[in-house]
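Service request form, structural biology core

Requester: graduate student, group of Dr. S.
Request type: structure prediction, single chain
Budget code: on file
Notes: please return the result as structure tokens.

Sequence provided:
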Amino acid sequence: MTRFLTAIALMFALMLAPFALHAEDGKTKLFISITTDDTWAAGKAIMFAHQKSLKNGHETAIWMNVRAVYLADKKRPSHIHGLMAEKGTSIQDMLTAFIADGGTVLMCSACSKAAGLTQADYIDGVTMGSFPVIEKWLFDPMTKTLTW
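Core staff response, request fulfilled:
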């Protein structure tokens, strides 16, 4: 009976080990998916990614897909609603600051193509996301996901 209980305890310890290591080494990641070109929602998502995740030590990526691809187009001005933005700040400014601080902005290549946008249309620092690039984020056991 003692061997059985020891085996069960060891099994649970091994199952929980990745979570214990995860908490200690601080290598949590956040993958935020933005699907809208609504600047209020997108501004909130970018602010959260930058101020709450990246600045608290979490590797953070913003995946812009569906209509969100328009928000990183350097030719499209955008207004940010509410208390999140200082006067004159745009979504592009927020994304640029996020990238400058070490954040990753990934663009859906299929959505970009559907929108008629190319890498040259986007602000500096945007990475065109292929499946291998996205897969490294999504299927990493240390990654949490959030969507707007």
